[in-house]
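Supplementary Note 2. Why include the ligand at all?

Several targets in our set were suspected to adopt different conformations when bound, so apo predictions alone were not considered sufficient. For every target with a known small-molecule partner we therefore ran a joint prediction. The input for adenosine-5'-diphosphate is given below.
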Amino acid sequence: MDITLVQGDITTQEVDAVVNAANSSLLGGAGVDGAIHGRGGPEILEECRRLRASSHRGGLPTGQAVATTAGRLPARWVIHTVGPVYAPGEDRSALLASCHRESLRVADELGARTVAFPAISTGIFGWPMADAARIALETVSAAETSVVEVRFVLFDATAYGTFNDLIMKFARKS
Ligand code: ADP
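The joint prediction is reproduced in token form.
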């Protein structure tokens, strides 16, 4: 699998599936979630509402993932996952790793071969970028998946730089 990095907006990515840093209600929010629903249009929210009325009555638990249409986005699917809120006194990194693993598992079920991820939990949920980047890169590179490209889409230059520094270390190790 290739791990690639771009600085930009995840809603413009031409990939099979885009991962959404959703909240457990699945009914939309700010940040990436707001951008995906805003640009993808109402079809995504309609499908989220159907999930809430059927298989996901209690919402989506932290660390899990579920797919919907991508509406008007260039992608075919949105894979919604709920990152953990950062808690300084508690190690929630297994949940953040789970978001990445579960998103790739759902991608495999869909037959998606190219998947774009945002930096899950690093916005409103407060996770320090370098630690989130380490967890994301370690988890994705260790995953057994048929996905051929995982593209991390970083919103600003600082986030891009943080991922880029780490990916160099990964490259040197392998
Ligand atoms: P969370 O609630 O999981 O922290 P956020 O959406 O608040 O999710 O933020 C996650 C990351 O996504 C942050 O680093 C934020 O800067 C970034 N982000 C926000 N909008 C976009 C976008 N349109 N494309 C890519 N990344 C984005």
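Helices lie at 31-40, 42-53, 93-110, 129-142, 157-173. The mean pLDDT is 96. Comparable summaries for the other entries are listed in the accompanying table.
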